[in-house]
Amino acid sequence: MSQLDLSIEAGVSARHLSFVETGRSRPSPELILRLAEQLDLPLAARNTVLLAGGYAPAYSTHDLTDPELDPVRAAVRQILDAHSPYPALLVDKHWHLVEANPAVALFTAGADPRLLSPPVNVLRLSLHPDGMAPRILNLPQWRAHLLSRLRQQAVTSNDPILYDLHEELRGYPGDDAHETPISTAVSRIVVPLRYRHDGREMSFLSTTTLFGTPLDVTVAGLAVEAFFPADPATTASLQALAGPGAAHRP
């Protein structure tokens, strides 16, 4: 985005924006927030820019256990419970596991206990050779998908923790892993997770759910990662694993 494009989107003259950039004019907090919104900065970064400009942060940061976030936790719990018998989990901005439904146990089965000690990082668990990686049948494809997503998130947030995590995961083996041919129609549309559990081959589609209007830094960093069966065989396997009381899903 050019400076002219940014000035038009933010509703400020290009001359004034140039003065702000060079330090000849001091921006108001309202202008800082408008610019941050147009640049799609995360809420934590907007607070940082406000502080750099000499203003108080505009967005709160709560702990997940704070009473103010009770409605948020209740909404997430409802999503996770309703998704059973399919796996779903809640992660924070650094991909640490916050909550999960019981079906996620099929992903953690067989993982080194060290990877399951809190705080559990779900990307590390996914790609570590002592985690899920040996059971992911399309590991190179899935690995490339996760690394690309993490890299984009790190660049957008300029978060050193995410950059360090990306470098760590890049060092794990997986690019030269054996990959069975991909022949299903869904594999030509999205990147599936093809996973072996207890002798069964399963195929999943993943979705990400974010809070649509966050005004809190913690809430803005939360994401629900939900997995759906990509074929009837996976649906049947998940319902069998969940037992006779599992909800039937089409």
UniProtKB/TrEMBL annotation:
Domain of life of the source: Bacteria
An MF annotation (GO) of this entry: DNA binding
Name this protein carries in UniProt: Helix-turn-helix transcriptional regulator
Domain HTH cro/C1-type per the UniProt entry, residue ranges: 1-46
SUPFAM superfamilies assigned to the protein according to its UniProt record, in alphabetical order: lambda repressor-like DNA-binding domains (SSF47413)
Organism name: Micromonospora profundi
Cross-referenced InterPro entries: Cro/C1-type_HTH (IPR001387), Lambda_DNA-bd_dom_sf (IPR010982), MLTR_LBD (IPR041413)
Pfam families: HTH_3, MLTR_LBD
